[in-house]
Structures are given as structure tokens and as C-alpha cells.
Write a structure and sequence with these properties.
The chain is mainly α. The structure holds adenosine-5'-diphosphate and tryptophan (TRP).
């Protein structure tokens, strides 16, 4: 079984990215025969159009993934732009992609609604994503809920291509972890860098505490009984505390006499501790930039061997070879 996922280099890694996508992808390292994880830097260019910001974001994401447990002996970890073959594949896929399929994509519509210029790249984004996935003939694609439609588009494109040109691509499936499909941000909406409501995985202790203290709750007083199921503070707490501690907090919520400020302090401490080891690993990696670069180059070589194969198969199927 082959597993592939990608993450855009378009900002600092946050808890939504970690729990929704990176952690499930890293867990698959032990279960799959082959795992591929890449930095979607071509995709990031649809929104990050400042060369030094893009370069910095690529380096940061590389350190993040390695620090959080990416094992490069099991996972081919690479920059999308180091594998230009995906671009050619994207073109071959684009000729069987109906306009209507792309016009229906929520992600495109949301981005336009937020004021991002509707470029051709932004519109064709799902076709490039399909190329990323189909290029390695992935079976499973771990993603957060918001990427589900893009994986469905990938499936539609693959089916269309196979129908038109003969069996070429495997049909992939999304892997979405229900409990973490939508991690809430500090304002209660989906956590996203576009909503400026994120809790960053790697940040200073002071900034972490300040961000957690800003988590929005209802206006109940300390004495009031509270509903843990309707509280995004509690939803975030559950990601970090063991089940018995969550159970205790659940009871304290329902009894009353518990202030949200107290829970926030506890949560900040839990998050800080949770990432302590990864933080130490990241510091070490940061002091040796050549190491991450070496991993990415080797990863690209491994991915390219598989991707070149698929591309050749697709070129033959359409009559270019
Ligand atoms: P953002 O919304 O911050 O721009 P990305 O689009 O770069 O995040 O998402 C990278 C990955 O992280 C995707 O697989 C996405 O589904 C997942 N993800 C992002 N935010 C969340 C969230 N709040 N909850 C669960 N998964 C998320
Ligand atoms: N669109 C994904 C996101 O914003 C990133 C991505 C690009 C991706 N290509 C992919 C994810 C292929 C999974 C598989 O998060």
C-alpha cells in the first residue's frame, strides 16, 4: 500500500495541520509499504508571491516535518518543485478535466471570496494536486476534511483518463480522521492560517500562552455549569490530555465552579510539553541546514524513480510515445 500527502509551504505549521494531516501521515509510516510526503511549493506559489517568504516557508516546513517524526528512511520526503515531471503529468490530466469539475471546488470559491486573485494557477490547483497523487500511484491520501473534495476530484480525473486512454492510474482514497477532521481555531471556526486564528506548533512559550489565553469561550462565570461539548477550548484540550484527565475536566465543566482561565493555563502547559521533544530536535536540525537539504534531495530521487515510470506510462497511453 502506498501513502502520499503534501503540505503547502505557505505559512507556519499549526495544530490543525499537525493533527489533521501530518500526524496521520506520519502514523502511516509504520503501516504502509511506501510513504511519500512532499512540500507543495508549486501550490504555495498560488498565494505566496514573495521569493524570500516562499524560500523561508519551504525551509521551515522541512524542519517541522523532520522534527515531528518524519523518518526519511521510510518516507520519501521531497519538494514538489524538485520533481518537475508532475507538471507534465498535470497537463496530460488537464485535457480530460471538465471545467465544471473545477468550477465546483469549494477551496477555489473560498479563496476568491477572501480576495485572492482568481489566477489560472489557482483554478487549476486541483489538477496539479491530482498529478501529485496519481504520479506515485497512491492508494491512500491522509488529509484534513477541507481537502476531501480535492481527492474526489483526483478520483474523477483518474477514472476519466483511464476510461479515455486505458488503465493507467490507481484510484486513490482519502484518509480522514474523524476526531481531528476539523480542528477549531482560537475563534471557534476551523483553524486556518487564512483566518488568523491558529495556534502554532513551534513558537515561544510566551506567545503560545498568549494565544491560548485568547481562545474564545462563552461568557459563563466561574460558578456556572458549562457544556464541554459546545466548547472549543475543551475540543483543543482533548487533543493533548489523556482520556482520564479529559473525563475529569468533563465532570468539572458540568458541575460548575471552574473558570475558563484555569483551563487555558493548563492547556498552554500541555501543548508546550507535548512538543518539547520535537522542539529540541528542530533546534538541532536548524543548526545543520545541510542535513535537511540532503534528505530532500534523496527523497526527490526516490520519488522521481516512481514518478518517471508513471509519466512514461501516461505518455504512452495518450500517444506521445
Ligand atoms: P490552512 O487552512 O491553514 O491554509 P492548509 O490548507 O495548508 O491549511 O492545510 C494543510 C493540511 O492540513 C491539509 O491536509 C488540511 O486538510 C489540514 N488542515 C488544515 N487545517 C486543518 C484543521 N483546522 N483541522 C484539520 N485539518 C486541517
Ligand atoms: N492542497 C493541499 C493543502 O492545501 C496540499 C497538497 C498538494 C496535497 N498536493 C497534494 C495534499 C497531494 C495531499 C496530496 O493542504
Amino acid at each position: 500500500m502506498r501513502v502520499l500527502s503534501g503540505i503547502q509551504s505557505s505559512g507556519k505549521l499549526h495544530l490543525g495541520n499537525y493533527f489533521g494531516m501530518l500526524k496521520p501521515a506520519l502514523e502511516m509510516q509504520a503501516k504502509s509499504d511506501e510513504t511519500y510526503l512532499f512540500i507543495a511549493d508549486y501550490h504555495a506559489l498560488t498565494t505566496v508571491q514573495d521569493a524570500s517568504a516562499l524560500r523561508a516557508a519551504i525551509n521551515e516546513i522541512a524542519l517541522d516535518a523532520l522534527a515531528l517524526g518524519l523518518d526519511h528512511s521510510r518516507t520519501a520526503f521531497y519538494r514538489q518543485s524538485d520533481v518537475p515531471e508532475v507538471q507534465e503529468l498535470a497537463w496530460l490530466l488537464s485535457v480530460v478535466t471538465p471545467m465544471g469539475l473545477l468550477e465546483r471546488c469549494h477551496s477555489y470559491k473560498d479563496k476568491i471570496a477572501r480576495g485572492i486573485a482568481p489566477s489560472h494557477g489557482l483554478f487549476a490547483y486541483p489538477v496539479l494536486m491530482a498529478a501529485d497523487i496519481l504520479a506515485v500511484q497512491a492508494d491512500i491520501v491522509p488529509v484534513g476534511q477541507d481537502q476531501k473534495q480535492h481527492v474526489e476530484v483526483t478520483r474523477d480525473i483518474a477514472i476519466k483518463f483511464n476510461h479515455q486512454f486505458g488503465e493507467t492510474f490507481k484510484i486513490p482514497k482519502p484518509l480522514i480522521k474523524k476526531e481531528v477532521a476539523v480542528v477549531p481555531g482560537i475563534d471557534g471556526q476551523k483553524m486556518s492560517k487564512s483566518y488568523d486564528n491558529t495556534i502554532k506548533v513551534f513558537t515561544s512559550e510566551d506567545e503560545l500562552r498568549k494565544t491560548v489565553m485568547r481562545i474564545v469561550t462563552d461568557s459563563k462565570t466561574v460558578a456556572d455549569k458549562k457544556d464541554p461539548e459546545k466548547c472549543n477550548l475543551f475540543a483543543l484540550y482533548k487533543l493533548f490530555a489523556p482520556p482520564d484527565r479529559c473525563q475529569q475536566l468533563d465532570e468539572r465543566y458540568r458541575k460548575g465552579g471552574l473558570g475558563y482561565g484555569e483551563v487555558k493555563k493548563e492547556l498552554a502547559g500541555l501543548i508546550w510539553l507535548f512538543f518539547a521533544e520535537a522542539r529540541a530536535r528542530r533546534e538541532k536540525l536548524r543548526s545543520d541546514p545541510a542535513e535537511a537539504e540532503r534528505v530532500l534531495r534523496q527523497g526527490a530521487e526516490r520519488a522521481r524513480a516512481v514518478i518517471r515510470n508513471t509519466l512514461q506510462k501516461a505518455r504512452k497511453a495518450v500517444g506521445l510515445e
